[in-house]
Amino acid sequence: MEKNKIGKYLKYAIGEIILVVIGILIALQLNNLNDERKTENLRQVYYKQLLQDFDNDKAYIKEHSSRIDSNMVKFRAFKEIYNQPNLPINKIISKVRNLAWPLYNVQFKSNTINTLQNTGDIKLIPPTIREQLISLEKYKEQTEKVSKYNNDKSGEGTSAAANKLGSEEFAFKNIQNQPKLLEYVFEEKNLIELLIKLEFSQYMKVESEQGSLKRFKNILSNMEEIEILINKELKK
């Protein structure tokens, strides 16, 4: 009888252990599923933020490109004056005033990719999309740096011209009743030097803007490829 009781107790104990182990395994499985669900939800949030960033970047590129196109129209019109022979230097200088002079550095506002990298959550993104995102971000950063460099050079030319001419209001308005000042400011030697400085400034500005337009096309193309991949992930 004692042996029968021990056998029953052993079977009961083994059964209890098996049930506990099964319970633990189920709990672990549920916990893993819950973690996976949280991870997937977070990934979905990042995907949507990235798509929103792309929309913002597209709007910014469209606005900036439109401004550049307008500037280019003015620049081409200015270049045409050189087709006229023997124009007085002061006549050319006066046409310079019609050019677009404000400088706008390229500066993207989106930051989801940086957030992914800084938090380490970039690892949540599939390798194919991740690599393209990192590459795109680097290219955007290079675009910003090139734009700033060229604009800084253009600004230096404008500053040099301002040191020679003064303000536009000074040269073309304030001193109109001051013959000696007019004679000095509009002396041909000074005007030639001034024109060279202004030409350099405008050249660097155009280089900056034309370079930005080329880079914008590449950025838009890269974003389109990534969007296709992200939308496929969202539909899974």
Strand count, sense and barrel status of the largest sheet are:
none
User: How many DSSP H or I helices?
Assistant: 7
Distance between the termini: 62 Å
- How much helicity do the residues have? over 70%
Radius of gyration, whole Å: 33 Å
Poorly predicted ranges: none
Shape: rod-shaped
How large a portion of the residues is in β-strands, by DSSP E? under 5%
The average pLDDT score comes to: 87
Summarize the helix and strand pattern as letters: HHHHHHH
Secondary-structure-based class equals mainly alpha
Number of strands: 0
Give an overview in words.
With 236 residues, the protein is an all-alpha fold. 83% of the residues lie in helices and 0% in strands. The protein has 7 helices and no strands. It has helices spanning 2-79, 89-96, 112-119, 127-165, 168-174, 179-185, 188-235. The two termini are 62 Å apart. 16% of the residues are buried.
